[in-house]
Amino acid sequence: MALYLPALVLVALVSVFPIAYALRLSVYRTRALRTVEFIGWDNFATVLGPAGWADIARTFVYVVASLLLAVPLGLALAVLLNKQVRFVRLFRVVILLPWVVSQTVAALLWKWLLNGQYGPLHGLFGGEGPLSSTWGSMASLIVVNVWLSYPLATILCLAALQTVPAEQIEASRVDGCTPRQSFFQVIVPTIRSTLLILVIMLTLLYFNMVTLVYTLTGGGPFSGTQVLSLNAFLQSFQFFKIGVGAAYSVVLFVLNIVFGVAYIRVLKGKNDG
Questions:
Q1: CA 24, CA 161: separation in Å to the nearest integer?
Q2: 3-class DSSP state for residue 30?
Q3: How many CB atoms lie within 10 A of CB 204?
Q4: Domains and CATH numbers, the chain
Q5: CA quadruple 44, 48, 54, 57: dihedral positive or negative?
Q6: If DSSP codes are grouped into helix, strand and coil, which group holds residue 183?
Q7: Is the pLDDT of residue 272 over 70?
Q8: From CA 240, how far away is CA 80, in angstroms rounded?
Q9: Does the pLDDT of residue 60 top 80, yes or no?
Q10: Is-contact 62 138, C-beta < 8 A?
Q11: 8-state DSSP, 84
Q12: Which of 25, 111, 154, 196 would bridge with 74, disulfide CB 3.0–4.6 Å?
């Protein structure tokens, strides 16, 4: 037990203590970063009010749309990179390049590209560009998020594809399966555990993403891209409403737990089956 004690203390300091502290802050009214008065669930009433539910809805749109684009794109590129073609190493470098770009740099780059007045892509969009409208900003945010995160999906899918026995694919071809049938009936079931783990990782990443949203859109226009993670940051460090920000963080933490447990139960059920 003594050997595990330093690790347990470290985990408590970086995980358990911040969560407990956020829970405590969420039930207090704060002023100038100090707790002033115990108010119970009043902060959560603010978070779960009409504006809060709008943030939750936008968060689900952002997360689900990003997943529906990033996972299939990553899988398709992994299938391409798994083939023995010329210049495959060059293709791998180019395809995986966005992974080395930070969220801040990516947001600034795309903000310049999509600018309606002087951006290189402004001719593709009418008016003031996509970042000037609510849905255009959300669509742009999703596209940039997918551009940043699809390399992770590609790497994990490529690693999983290289573990699929070639004998299974050849046997399916002998049995008369087309390449498409072999892919969906042999390859996908073989790598489904990796795919589900990938979905878990990306879901948690998207739910907690602040830097990209804050730098690219700042939650605007008209709060059209204000997601839970961004509002938790703004309430805490811009408006200095630490209690409300902690309440947002607690709600976000609960959503992370719910989705993480749900995915793990699905994964366990598939493995048991």
A1: 46
A2: strand
A3: 16
A4: 5-272 (1.10.3720.10)
A5: positive
A6: helix
A7: no
A8: 49
A9: yes
A10: yes
A11: -
A12: 154
> What are 149-178's pLDDT values in tens digits?
999 999 999 999 998 888 888 888 878 888
Closest by CA to 110, choosing from 122, 127, 97, is 122
pLDDT tens figures, 94-141: 888 898 889 999 999 999 988 877 778 766 776 677 888 899 899 999
Specify whether the CB–CB gap between 39 and 179 falls below 8 A. no
141: left (phi over 0), alpha (psi -120 to 50) or beta: alpha
Helix (H, G, I), strand (E, B) or coil at 48: coil
SS3 for 109? helix
Contact 249, 257 (CB under 8 A): no
The residues, ordered by sequence, that sit 6+ positions from 227 with a Cβ below 8 Å of its Cβ are 55, 58, 59, 62, 209, 213, 219
Whether the CB-CB separation of 103 and 209 falls below 8 Å is answered with yes
Among 256, 209, 255, 216, which residue's Cα sits nearest to residue 233?
209
Number of other CB atoms surrounding residue 123 within 10 Å? 8
Residue 51 is which amino acid? Answer: A
* Contact (Cβ atoms closer than 8 angstroms) between residue 104 and residue 92: no
CA distance 249 to 122: 36
Q: Compute CA 190 distance to the chain's CA centroid, rounded to the nearest angstrom.
A: 24
Fill in the amino acid letter for 31: R
Q: What residue type is assigned to position 73 of the chain?
A: L
Q: What is the value of pTM for the model shown?
A: 0.90
